[in-house]
């Protein structure tokens, strides 16, 4: 349990990553302050009911960021990205600006530990994928700060597998890997547990870059686990060539899987030592992901993310 009385300011607390981090911090005794755009939104109200202090702000308003950081002990920094398509209308330059601004204001505000959430799809060279390379630029800036900083590199979220457009409603599942290729996946709850452990031990994690995943699976593994949990056959194959020729975003990601960039580099044994509950895809689908999986089995739709 944390003995720190000052709060951790969480960006994106109404979203996937920030939501998971908020829950894990609350569970381990931290005070949490959430940076939200709308104090009245359903998710903001739910956070408040769970004991979270709300501060209203917008990433386009640096003054609101400054105000939110007053007396904060720590900051969890995550930004929306162009990879989320039209959802937030954010460009790669916007994302870089937001991430650098949060880091600079954290330094000026006397924040003691900044945890920046990047992506594990980063190599030594630019990937050519805007919303990965933007994060490499933010990472570079975060590393220059003379305060405790930790960079978290999450793998692809298991939750993403259940988005419409991958064929689950038609008894198939199409994704980036060839059937025998493997890829690391992350359950968002595990991300929260790992980040809470990072805040709890700044001496151990300050200055480090930690790749985070929960499991590593091949396309065949996904077929087996999906079929078992669905109670009927779900056939796995890589995206069809026609799909890839018509969708440059998916084609680039598939190429990055082949080059290893998207495959994931997390050390699962090390992560298990931090979070012994690390979820396998099967455990996640049988547990907290179960309802979403059942819903995905009955939901038709087009893949809507990304831009070409
Ligand atoms: N999908 C993956 O597998 C994966 C893996 C690794 C990294 N990532 C990265 O994860 C990031 C997205 O995180 P996420 O999935 O947690 O996002 P998310 O669930 O879409 O949530 C986005 C959050 O950002 C907030 N927000 C959006 N625009 C804002 C603004 N102008 N000012 C203040 N807050 C704003 C939203 O608040 P509202 O409630 O007000 O909308 C929401 O809380 C992206 O950078 C993505 O590239 C994704």
TrEMBL record:
It comes from the Bacteria. Transmembrane segments: none annotated. Pfam families: NmrA. SUPFAM superfamilies: NAD(P)-binding Rossmann-fold domains. CDD domains: NmrA_like_SDR_a. Keywords: NADP. Residues 6-246 form the NmrA-like domain. Belongs to the NmrA-type oxidoreductase family. This is NmrA/HSCARG family protein. It comes from Vreelandella titanicae.
């Amino acid at each position: 349990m944390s003995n720190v009385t000052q709060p951790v300011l969480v960006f994106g607390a109404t979203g996937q990553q920030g939501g998971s981090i908020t829950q894990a911090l609350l569970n381990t005794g931290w005070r949490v302050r959430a940076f939200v755009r709308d104090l009245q939104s359903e998710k903001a109200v739910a956070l408040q009911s769970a004991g979270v202090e709300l501060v209203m702000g917008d990433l386009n308003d640096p003054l609101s960021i400054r105000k939110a950081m007053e007396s904060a002990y720590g900051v969890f920094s995550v930004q929306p990205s162009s990879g989320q398509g039209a959802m937030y209308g954010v460009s790669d330059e916007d994302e870089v600006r937001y991430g650098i601004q949060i880091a600079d204001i954290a330094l000026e505000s006397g924040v003691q530990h900044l945890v920046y959430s990047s992506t594990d799809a980063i190599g030594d060279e630019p990937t050519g994928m805007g919303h990965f390379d933007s994060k490499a630029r933010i990472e570079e800036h975060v590393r220059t700060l003379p305060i405790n900083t930790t960079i978290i590199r999450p793998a692809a979220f298991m939750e993403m597998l259940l988005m419409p457009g991958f064929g689950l409603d038609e008894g198939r599942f199409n994704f980036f890997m060839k059937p025998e290729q493997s890829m690391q996946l992350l359950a968002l709850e595990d991300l929260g547990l790992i980040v809470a452990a990072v805040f709890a031990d700044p001496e151990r994690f300050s200055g480090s870059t930690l790749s985070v995943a929960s499991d590593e699976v091949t396309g065949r593994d996904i077929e087996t686990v999906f079929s078992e949990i669905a109670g009927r056959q779900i056939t796995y194959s890589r995206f069809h060539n026609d799909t890839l020729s018509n969708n440059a975003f998916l084609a680039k990601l598939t190429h990055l899987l082949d080059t290893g960039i998207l495959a994931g580099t997390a050390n699962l044994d090390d992560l298990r030592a931090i979070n012994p509950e690390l979820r396998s895809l099967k455990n996640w689908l049988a547990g907290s992901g179960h309802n979403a999986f059942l819903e995905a089995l009955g939901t038709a739709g087009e893949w809507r993310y990304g831009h070409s």
